[in-house]
Amino acid sequence: MKQGVYNSFSLDDDSEFDADWALEQILMRPALLRLGNLSIKCIKEFYRDSSSLAALFYDLDSSKMYEVEIHSGEVDFAYITKAIEYWNLEENNHSGSNHCIVIAAKAINYTTLRLLHLFTSNIPVIVLQLKTYETENHRGIVFTKVFPYFI
Fold first, then answer.
1. C-alpha to C-alpha distance for 16 and 138, rounded to whole angstroms
2. What is this structure's pTM?
3. Which H or E element spans position 116?
4. Which fold has domain 19-147?
5. Which of 128, 113, 118 is nearest to 31 (CA)?
6. Distance between alpha carbon 79 and the CA centroid of its chain, in Å?
7. What DSSP assignment string belongs to 86-110?
8. Would you give per-residue pLDDT tens digits along the chain (151 residues)?
9. Does residue 135 sit in helix, strand or coil?
């Protein structure tokens, strides 16, 4: 196993390594999300803005669909609303499948997690913390599940 010094970097600080780059990493290796045997179904271009992207994944083993929102900043209530709207749209478009919102973000505060907890009786939600790292000649990304485990 190679050992080295790993430093974090921000997706906001480098136009080459931004939310687009993070989505590209997930599209190349969906296993990074640690949600199952995922296949990309589509990327939702109309949800692109300066700091977030959305994509729809399908679990080949369980037939579950994941509406994945990737956000390079801190998640706020407006972002949660957008994620729920996307989930609702996809659930209506692909009825008969189980759907789950996945929010992958650099930061999400405790108050927002508490708000999500109120929704989870009706809307399945997973929150992944997005962490980026770099060495002398490599950049990478790691996702850690923080919700529903935060309570």
1. 13
2. 0.81
3. helix 110-119
4. Trna Endonuclease; Chain: A, domain 1 (3.40.1350)
5. 128
6. 12
7. HHHHHHHHTTTS-EEEEEEEEEE-H
8. 666 666 666 666 666 777 777 778 888 899 999 999 999 888 775 444 545 668 889 999 988 999 888 877 788 778 888 888 888 888 888 877 888 999 888 888 888 888 888 877 788 889 998 888 887 778 888 898 988 754 3
9. coil
